[in-house]
Amino acid sequence: MKMPPDTVTAVIPHWNRRELLATLLDNLAQQTRPFDEIIVVDNGSTDGSVELAKQRGARVIALDQNVGFASAVNRGIQADHSDWIAIINNDVTLAPNWLESLLTNASTQGSSFFTGKILSAADHSLLDGAFDEVSRAACAARCGSGKLDAPIWNEPRIIRFAPMTAALFKSEIFRSLGGLDEVFGSYMEDVDFGIRCALAGFSGMYVPAAVAFHQGSATFGRWSANSVWRISRNQVLLAAKHFGRQPLLPIVIGQALWGLVALRHGCGWAFLRGKLAGLKDKRQLRPSETQNVAALATVLEASEEQIFDLGKQTGFDLYWRAYFWLLRR
Question: Residue 329 class from Cβ within 10 Å (0-12 exposed, 13-18 middle, 19+ buried)?
């Protein structure tokens, strides 16, 4: 008996920036394999975004206020019953075969989530990122970010972490693990989810034929005080939730170096405020699934080694060069 084709829903967390949403919805309509449904979870926009999404045929979940990326994604997941969920940022556009490429690989691979090559919307010769890794310092790495597109980024590979900029997930993962941890709000919620996936035995795949284009930090700005505050805070939350019994030295070195980078960008005070907020808010975290310290150490060591290997092949930025020099000298 022939099984019916899998169904796919796109979940778009959104807050203002109506013009971004209009571009994305027009773009999604051009997919060679159409989405079965598009859900826009609106975080209390005041610029007509809700009306626009309804006019374009999306199902809209309109929230009264901005509850953050993680909460908005969870609302979309909870409202859906598809086999697959694509989480897509509002400042992304997709190549026409993006979904078709991912589903083709999903039909032949045993992976539970997929992401593709993400290029800079401003310069298609540069990567915005390929896949994520995380160091033993609780600092995430967007692999390929800022690098020239090159053959190394055209190699499909098994991955541990899919950036939720544009990624496809089996719905059963969320039923098994629960949704995103809403305490994170925005930034690093996908890294937390990736750790939980890895510890539960779920792996993903990087499919470079599936190309997306990302403006990058269109809502807050890449090195805005708001972005730095959120990342700094959520580094503390990630470490508090998962790294409590991991070696302390990498955390101290990595976090201190990240603070220096923030200071270099004029965001030293935002970095400090974020750390203080993280120490306060860690009490709100859901209970950690990280019971097996050795298993987590294996995941973190393998992930950090991947960051190092890719740095050797494509060049280290200053942060990672300093981090590995201090830890490996």
Answer: exposed
Q: Residue 165 — left, alpha, or beta (φ > 0 → left; ψ -120 to 50 → alpha)?
A: alpha
- Which pLDDT score, from 0 to 100, does residue 3 have? 45
Chain centroid to CA 255: 20
Q: Which of 249, 271, 232 is nearest to 323 (CA)?
A: 249
The answer to whether 117 touches 100, Cβ cutoff 8 Å, is no
The domain ranges of the chain are 225-328
**25 neighbors 60 (Cβ within 8 angstroms):** no
Quick: pLDDT tens for 67-97: 999 999 999 999 999 999 999 999 999 999 9
Q: Would you call 148 helix, strand, or coil by DSSP? A: strand
Q: Rounded to whole angstroms, how far apart are CA atoms 171 and 216?
A: 26
Which residues are registered as beta bridge partners of 60?
40
Within a 10 A sphere around the Cβ of 209, how many other Cβ atoms? 16
- Please return the burial class of 285, using the count of CB atoms within 10 Å of its CB with bins 0-12, 13-18 and 19+: middle
Q: What is the pLDDT of residues 139-166, one digit of tens each?
A: 999 999 999 999 999 999 999 999 999 9
Task: Judge whether 50 and 60 are in contact, CB under 8 Å.
Answer: yes
Residue 81 CB-half CA count within 13 A: 0
Task: Quote the strand ranges of 164-279, DSSP E.
Answer: 166-170, 204-214
